[in-house]
Design brief:
Blueprint lengths: L2 E3 L1 H8 L3 H6 L4 H17 L7 E6 L7 H6 L2 E8 L2 H7 L8 E6 L13 E7 L8 H11 E12 L4 H13 L2 E3 L15 E9 L19 H18 L5 E9 L2
């Protein structure tokens, strides 16, 4: 019988291999990272080169920290449930002028005592939060006027991916529960909302070696063919059922 693992257990176990596993897939990880990076850049550019403060929700190893500091972030605060992930993030402490890491379960909302921020990001983390409303209300209360919350999370309209994961989970020895979101999940907030569907592609990870599904082989030729010839067409046509993620930007009035 398969078992469901919690995000802390998963993250603690995954931490030593995170960068390699999360972004090292060829070509899926590269496509995922590029689309996510472009979405983040779109909103960072709105600070027009001015300095800004950033709160990173579900920061993991703090993989965006260096880029944020380069673009003008002079205060960076990372929150994650995994101490082991934050140990990796702590390597960035010499980069930011003001740097802090906080171990906390975001299912409980935000910890008390935080100051206000110009930017709050939640990249690939909200899918592990059961009820995002309390967390987002807390985040919005900390956001400065004209501040931005940038979110990348699992898309509810990714019907192909949802079916794909459902079939995999039937045979998996362990599975990680994820929540699928749509823009309607964010409409309760009194702010301007912008969104975009990201990572539009055919699932090609079926042959990947990974600790969750135990598949073998790399399927390199098939994966590269789909990445080079098929996925660009799907992306150009904006075929939403193949969009792995949705990008949400919440802009405080």
């Amino acid at each position: 019988m398969d078992t469901e693992i919690d995000i802390k257990t998963h993250s603690d176990k995954d931490a030593p291999y995170f960068n390699k596993k999360r972004w090292g897939y060829k070509p899926e990880g590269i496509e995922d990272r590029n689309d996510t990076f472009e979405f983040i850049c779109e909103y960072i550019n709105r600070f027009n080169g001015s300095t800004f403060s950033c709160l990173d929700l579900g920061a993991g190893p703090g993989m965006w920290c260096e880029y944020l500091v380069k673009e003008g972030c002079d205060k960076y605060v990372a929150i994650d449930i995994s101490d082991k992930m934050l140990e990796l993030c702590n390597a960035n402490k010499t980069i930011a002028h003001s740097f802090e890491i906080i171990t906390h379960d975001l299912n409980d909302g935000l910890p008390v005592g935080l100051q206000s921020f110009d930017l709050i990001i939640a990249i690939h983390s909200l899918e592990y939060i059961v009820n995002i409303r309390p967390l987002l209300c807390d985040a919005m209360s900390l956001l400065k006027r004209n501040g931005i919350i940038v979110i990348v999370t699992k898309s509810k309209r990714a019907y192909i991916w949802r079916l794909y994961k459902f079939v995999f989970d039937l045979f998996a020895s362990s599975k990680l529960a994820q929540k699928w979101r749509s823009r309607k999940d964010f409409d309760f907030l009194n702010c301007d909302l912008e969104y975009k569907y990201l990572n539009i592609r055919i699932p090609t990870m079926i042959n990947n070696v990974n600790s969750t599904y135990k598949f073998k082989g790399d399927g390199k030729k098939i994966r590269n063919f789909i990445s080079r010839y098929i996925n660009p067409i799907l992306k150009k046509l904006n075929i939403i059922p193949f969009a792995w993620h949705i990008g949400i930007a919440l802009i405080k009035k």
